[in-house]
Design goal:
six-stranded mixed β-sheet, 35% helix, 21% strand, elongated
Amino acid sequence: MNWPGTLLNGRPKTRADLLFQLRTRTPHELWLVIVDASASTRRHQALSDAKGVLAQLFDDAYRQRARLALLTASGAVPKWQVQGLKASSGLHTWLEGLGAGGGTPLLAALSEAGQWLAVRRKRFPAEQQRLLLLTDGRLKDIAGLPALACPGLLIDIERGSIRLGRAKQLATALKADYRHLDELLTV
């Protein structure tokens, strides 16, 4: 019911005098976040600074009512933290406990994410999906990357005096936009 609009026209006497608000049904947004938390991301506070970006992302997702899917790539296998839920304050607790260590199952994480997105796209065809990948790009081989059919952004968290630049190659292979973490921290 649009009460202000109805009452501005005077006291309603019939049903025809009542104004109703039109409901807009915009499709939900899903933000798929993949975090590379391998041992190499511990160097030069890369993962610590990336946590700041993630905290801001969680706040933005909460304000925009976006749904989040969060996949961590560390150790032997990737691990889902959240799958398609609304952003909540519980994510900040997880973020505080996030540590780096082990190998980089990033290719397995991308493959699993691609399969999950395909299933979700069939279930929610109007949903707008976006990918955010935080990684230093330190992979042995990027051959066999899955095609993720959604727009993406790769944030390169590689730090140090010697940078291999593999994250930029990974972004190109994934057809994702590329930004370095230092660009985001100075903005």
